[in-house]
Amino acid sequence: MNVSEALDTRITCRAFLDKPVEPDKLRKVLEMAKRAPSGGNLQPWHVWAVGGERLQEFKDLIAEKMKTNPMGEGTEYDIYPRGLKEPYKTRRFQCGEDMYATINVPRDDKAGRLTQFANNFRLFGAPVALFFAMDRQMGYGQWADLGMFMQSIMLAAREEGLHTCPQEAWAVWYKTLGEFLNIPEDQMLFCGMGIGYMDEDAQINTLRTRRAELDEFVVFDGI
Description:
- This protein is α+β, with helices and mostly antiparallel strands.
- It has eight helices and four strands, in the order H-H-E-H-H-H-E-H-E-H-E-H.
């Protein structure tokens, strides 16, 4: 698979098969991704890869906590900017509407939408979870490095026949994650990512989010 194919076929997978990810394949993906760009070669990312009984233990813990606290325990950062302006507000709204349309959950079906939201914390059935954190000393530049590292994981995963689901939703359980994984206090959880084999028959995986035309976000100057 070439880079163009990996970019085109990468989606946020929201339904995985009950099929294990081979440990050697996971290590290969992470080995490739560590070549991601990093200013000053700081390589500021820290990753916890969790699977098997340990992951089930964690999902059971979250499921129990969600009985009394379904929206989590808050975040250390704003997942989306407050007072989101256009065109970003409409893009976010449309993404949600398009996703729920694939599973026939209308806007007035609050229970259905909450059920789908809760699926985030079952990792949509992914057999492996990656959790990403970074030293609190780091700044905007290093957050960009972490993003490029995660993108590299997602593209390398496609080469290995895997799919991924990056999930900032895990930020709402940063306290529980920190305790369960023993994340050092000087590191800040950013997000999680499910990784595994996609359920090709799941309707929710037919979603292809809309993208703006080049002229909406590119200024061609002298070209």
